[in-house]
Specification:
The chain has about 170 residues and is α+β, with helices and mostly antiparallel strands. About 55% of the residues lie in helices and about 20% in strands. The N terminus is likely disordered.
Length: about 170
């Protein structure tokens, strides 16, 4: 059985200066670090990544946890793993970037909505000025109304133009 790279050699004087291989793993409950002598490891099963040993009490949480050794992968498997990991990261970053673009695309809609609201405010101001011009017989109110409609339509066109520019920039 191979010992994982995480294991290390320690020199313990209480054992007659015999070098002992110490392996490390983590508690399945508290994630605390566990150390054990690899020669006392008794295999009880395995999966693709780990070889399981016996149950021992965790020195941190006092629960019975299983000790394990990580399997060592051949060099080709390590390269394949690293390549797959890098490709996975690239896919994740692309998906995250695309989701940001989709969520930010609402700004065009918000600009267009703001332009429509400003145009409607100009139209309401125009109607109010026509009403005031008719009821007060002052023609100057019509000038104010036309100015309000003109201003609302200019802002509407500006906002619509900004929204289109943003859409065109996103497509590039």
């Amino acid at each position: 059985m191979e010992i994982p790279e995480r294991a290390f050699i320690t020199d313990d004087d209480s054992r007659n200066n015999i070098h002992t291989m110490i392996a490390k793993c983590k508690c399945q409950y508290c994630n605390g670090a566990l150390e054990f002598e690899s020669e006392n490891f008794q295999e009880s099963g395995q999966d693709q990544r780990q070889i399981f040993g016996q149950f021992v009490p965790c020195p941190h949480c006092n629960k019975q946890t299983i000790i394990y050794l990580e399997k060592l992968a051949p060099q080709d498997n390590v390269r394949a793993f690293l390549k797959e990991r890098d490709e996975s990261r690239i896919r994740f970053l692309k998906e995250r970037n695309e989701s940001r673009i989709r969520s930010d695309s609402r700004i065009e809609d918000q600009l267009e909505t703001a332009g429509i609201i400003i145009l409607l405010i100009g139209l309401v101001a125009f109607l109010a000025s026509v009403f005031l011009a008719v009821t007060s017989s002052q023609i100057e109110w019509l000038i104010v109304g036309f100015a309000a409609v003109f201003q609302g339509s200019i802002f509407f066109l500006l906002f619509k133009g900004f929204a289109e520019v943003i859409r065109l920039l996103r497509e590039k």
